[in-house]
Specification:
Elements: H1 2-25, H2 29-36, E1 38-43, E2 46-47, E3 51-54, E4 57-59, H3 61-77, E5 83-88, H4 94-99, E6 105-107, E7 120-122, E8 127-136, E9 151-155, H5 160-170, E10 176-180, H6 183-191, E11 197-201, H7 202-210, E12 218-221, E13 227-230, E14 233-235, H8 239-255, H9 257-267, E15 269-270, E16 275-276, H10 283-290
Parallel strand pairs: 1-5, 1-6, 9-10, 9-11
Antiparallel strand pairs: 2-3, 3-4, 7-14, 8-11, 8-12, 8-13, 15-16
Length: 297
């Protein structure tokens, strides 16, 4: 009898500890938003055509998606007049700002990686990016092996740098790396001739080239180093926010509205120069469209 009682007590203690741990990790961003009356959304400033700024206002593929998420949050909280604020973030700032509560979610070009899963949560993916490189049209660089003894720029805090490092080691290359604080600065270093190549996501490279004023001066080359899933970055352990974001994004995929957004931002003229990127849907995005997932890499 005593032995059975001990087992029951031990089991109860384990359950209590488990519930206590779960409670300790739980995050309720919706409660914070309801209390403050404000939803703060992080965005990028030069990640064309996904998340960037035109005339002081954030625009892009991810911004349109997050506007739909914001509308769903208003419905969930029964707060039609909820104040939505957009706050610019850099690649190095975005995770610390999300973890500290300065922003409630981030809508940009954040790759869902399993390493980042330790710090933040991600929604269902909305884009699959190929990591390639932009060079001057006159450049003889065609593949990553051609970067030996060249200067290469990447943006500080982005995952493309990891893939570049892996390629350099695997191909025994010698390169000089420099970093831009954001994509705009990285592209400016390429444009100024201070870098021979800019390694980054295909969408970002194409967007920067299209809006540069001299799109014929650049080209995107190289076999993709990786195909990365982009998703809304959310506070870690916040299942409610993830449920809302997932509902919206899966709905966009299944309704065909995501295809309309893709056409708007990747196949049609975009601000500020009204130039079209003409980026056809790649194979990975076609698979994502058929089978929406929140899987990282």
């Amino acid at each position: 009898m005593k032995s059975g009682l001990r087992k029951i007590c031990a089991s109860s203690m384990v359950c209590a500890l488990s519930m206590s741990a779960t409670s300790a990790f739980a995050v309720d961003t919706l409660a914070k938003i309801q209390k403050t009356g404000t939803l703060v959304i992080g965005h990028r400033v030069s990640s064309q055509p996904i998340s960037y700024v035109v005339n002081g206002h954030p625009v892009g593929y991810a911004i349109d998606i997050c506007n739909d998420v914001a509308s769903e949050i208003k419905k969930e909280l029964h707060m039609p007049n909820l104040h939505v604020v957009y706050k610019a973030v850099s690649p190095t700032e975005r995770i610390p700002m999300l973890r500290s509560g300065q922003i409630d979610m981030e809508c940009g070009t954040s790759t869902h990686s399993v390493i980042r899963d330790r710090e933040v949560k991600f929604s269902t993916n909305y884009y699959m990016a190929e990591i390639r490189m932009a060079v001057k049209s006159t450049s003889h660089v065609r593949e990553f092996d051609d970067l030996d003894n060249k200067t290469v720029v990447t943006t500080a805090g982005v995952i493309a740098d990891k893939y570049l490092n892996r390629t350099v080691r695997g191909h025994d290359l010698t390169i000089h790396k420099i970093y831009g604080r954001d994509h705009g600065e990285s592209f400016a270093l390429l444009a100024a001739g201070k870098a021979d190549a800019f390694v980054g996501a295909d969408s970002t490279l194409a967007g920067l080239i299209a809006t540069s004023g001299h799109p014929r001066d650049y080209k995107i080359v190289g076999t993709a180093l990786s195909v990365d899933p982009y998703a809304i970055m959310l506070p870690n352990h916040d299942v409610k926010m993830k449920a809302i974001a997932d509902k919206v994004i899966v709905g966009l995929w299944r309704s065909g509205k995501m295809d309309q957004l893709y056409k708007k931002w990747f196949l049609s003229p975009i601000p500020p120069r009204n130039i079209a990127l003409n980026m056809e849907l790649n194979k990975a995005n076609k698979v994502l469209r058929m089978r929406p997932t929140d899987a990282g890499n």
